[in-house]
From TrEMBL:
Pfam families: Acetyltransf_1. Keywords: Acyltransferase, Cytoplasm, Ribonucleoprotein, Ribosomal protein, Transferase. NCBIfam families: rimI (TIGR01575). It comes from Micromonospora pisi. This is [Ribosomal protein bS18]-alanine N-acetyltransferase. The lineage of its organism: Bacteria, Bacillati, Actinomycetota, Actinomycetes, Micromonosporales. Gene3D superfamilies: 3.40.630.30.
Length: 144
């Protein structure tokens, strides 16, 4: 089930962040800031109500940016990431933005494949974007 990301989800989200992103994880303050800014954030809950994923979208009149999508390791490959992405794209469409953008690590082939399946195409590279690993980010875009 997908539902609105609320402040009380932050601790569970941070556990996933630490596992998936290590030193490059977002801080509690970053999530508080995203929520306070009114960005569109969702969490995915399993049948027992346990948080297994989350995603966020920042929207301006000109474009939407997928801020993050993450799924707990033991819940990956089960359609949760796809459901989160579809919900973000539906929100972007609802708001009528002409394009949706995202950044993904150049070494994250699985995520790139998922995004490509939804019409995202590479449009640039941000060198050293992810810190402290200095990993490059592939910038991807889709119309609509």
């Amino acid at each position: 089930m997908l539902t609105r990301f609320r402040w009380w989800h932050i601790d569970d989200v941070l556990t996933i962040e630490a596992d998936l992103f290590g030193a490059e994880q977002w801080t509690p303050g970053m999530f508080w800031s995203e929520l306070a800014s009114g960005h569109h954030y969702l969490v995915a809950l399993d049948d027992e109500g346990v948080l297994i994923g989350y995603a966020g979208l920042a929207v301006t009149p000109d474009e939407a940016w997928v801020q993050n999508i993450a799924v707990r390791r033991d819940a990956q490959r089960g359609g949760v990431g796809r459901a989160l992405l579809e919900a973000l794209l539906a929100e972007a469409a609802r708001r009528g933005v002409p394009r949706t953008m995202l950044e993904v690590a150049v070494d994250n082939a699985g995520a790139q494949k998922l995004y490509a399946a939804y019409g995202f195409e590479p449009v640039g590279v941000r060198r050293g974007y992810y810190q402290p690993s200095n990993t490059d980010a592939l910038v991807m875009m889709r119309d609509g």
